[in-house]
């Protein structure tokens, strides 16, 4: 069942570039970078604060020089994402949910204002890892790959991405925060405030090395999740060979209990990339290009959060999807399908 709620305009995210960091920000950074069990008489000298500020600024400069915007057009829809160049010959790390299949043509927005062509290579959907290659041999500006396993709790880090989407004459946006946890034994968690458009951007250590790739956010501003760069290194050969694995399953091998949708991150929610013919979402009237902003009143901001809401449903239960379509806000009821025999959970 479909219900029209209201008409609205798409949410627009904006952000200003962080350029040179003032000493006052350095003081704030140190306040959040307290070592474990500090002594009450510990004092940080002004010279140390200046050195810290210089390291942050240097890392941000290296990060900006290698961060790119990605404009992807698939299934008659266009979306913006981010990436980071990690080799002189133009290999770019990004996330799998930025494009759905190898061979996708991509416009790459370089930090110097040039726009060049690239192509999507391999992708691991479950791990949210993907590789893009710029056409031509370069040389291209790039950042070195660091060691994501070496991160320690409360370590300062720098994050870049095209927050809110690619904006003409605006570079990638820099944020500074701390590494807080290794979430769910895979993801890196930080308090660097991530926004739509940042997906595929990079997390850097203070030496300017790439340690993670921006993946998804939760409702709290301090819960931002990144793919560890080690995952890309572990699967480099498969990614470079344009393999596509752990992908959304087809009708003959659908994901357990799925509503019958493939989605990608978009401003304000998740965008429907594909509706599996004959399944519950198709029967309920969900369409490619719909923006899903909530499931049963609970907001979704990434494919991972959408799948989490989906898993919460029992077979036969009905989920109410809050959707924006052509300026209208709709509610569509979709029943969760029963898992087919012999399929993996």
UniProtKB/TrEMBL annotation:
<dbReference type="GO" id="GO:0004252">
    <property type="term" value="F:serine-type endopeptidase activity"/>
</dbReference>
<feature type="domain" description="PDZ">
    <location>
        <begin position="246"/>
        <end position="327"/>
    </location>
</feature>
<dbReference type="InterPro" id="IPR001478">
    <property type="entry name" value="PDZ"/>
</dbReference>
<dbReference type="Pfam" id="PF13180">
    <property type="entry name" value="PDZ_2"/>
</dbReference>
<dbReference type="Pfam" id="PF13365">
    <property type="entry name" value="Trypsin_2"/>
</dbReference>
<dbReference type="InterPro" id="IPR009003">
    <property type="entry name" value="Peptidase_S1_PA"/>
</dbReference>
<dbReference type="InterPro" id="IPR036034">
    <property type="entry name" value="PDZ_sf"/>
</dbReference>
<protein>
    <submittedName>
        <fullName>Serine protease HhoB</fullName>
    </submittedName>
</protein>
<keyword id="KW-0378">Hydrolase</keyword>
<comment type="similarity">
    <text>Belongs to the peptidase S1C family.</text>
</comment>
<dbReference type="GO" id="GO:0006508">
    <property type="term" value="P:proteolysis"/>
</dbReference>
<keyword id="KW-0645">Protease</keyword>
<dbReference type="InterPro" id="IPR001940">
    <property type="entry name" value="Peptidase_S1C"/>
</dbReference>
């Amino acid at each position: 069942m479909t219900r029209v709620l209201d008409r609205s305009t798409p949410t627009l995210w904006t952000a200003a570039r962080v350029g040179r960091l003032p000493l006052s920000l350095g003081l704030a950074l140190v306040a959040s970078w307290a070592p474990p069990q500090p002594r009450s008489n510990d004092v940080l000298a002004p010279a140390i604060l200046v050195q810290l500020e210089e390291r942050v600024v240097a890392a941000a400069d290296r990060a900006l020089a290698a961060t790119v915007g990605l404009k992807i057009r698939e299934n008659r829809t266009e979306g913006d994402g981010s990436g980071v160049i990690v080799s002189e010959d133009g290999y770019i790390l990004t996330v799998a949910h930025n494009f759905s299949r190898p061979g996708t043509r991509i416009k790459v927005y370089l930090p110097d204002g040039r726009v060049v062509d690239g192509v999507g290579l391999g992708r691991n959907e479950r791990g949210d890892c993907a590789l893009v290659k710029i056409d031509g041999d370069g040389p291209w500006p790039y950042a070195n790959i660091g060691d994501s396993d070496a991160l320690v709790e409360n370590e300062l880090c720098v994050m870049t991405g095209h927050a809110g989407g690619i904006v003409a004459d605006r570079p990638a946006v820099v944020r500074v925060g701390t590494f807080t946890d290794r979430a769910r034994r895979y993801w890196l968690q930080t308090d660097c405030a991530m926004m739509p458009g940042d997906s595929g951007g990079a997390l850097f250590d203070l030496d300017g090395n790439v340690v993670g790739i921006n993946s998804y956010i939760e409702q709290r501003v301090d819960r931002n999740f990144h793919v560890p760069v080690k995952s890309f290194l572990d699967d480099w050969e498969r990614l470079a060979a344009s393999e596509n694995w752990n992908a959304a399953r087809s009708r003959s091998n659908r994901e357990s209990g799925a509503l019958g949708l493939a989605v990608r991150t978009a401003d304000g929610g998740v965008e429907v990339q594909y509706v599996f013919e004959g399944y519950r979402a198709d029967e309920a009237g969900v369409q490619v290009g719909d923006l899903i902003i909530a499931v049963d009143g609970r907001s979704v901001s990434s494919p991972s959060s959408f799948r989490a809401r989906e898993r919460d449903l029992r077979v036969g239960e009905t989920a109410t999807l809050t959707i924006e379509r052509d300026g209208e806000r709709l509610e569509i009821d979709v029943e969760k399908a029963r898992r087919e025999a012999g399929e993996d959970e």
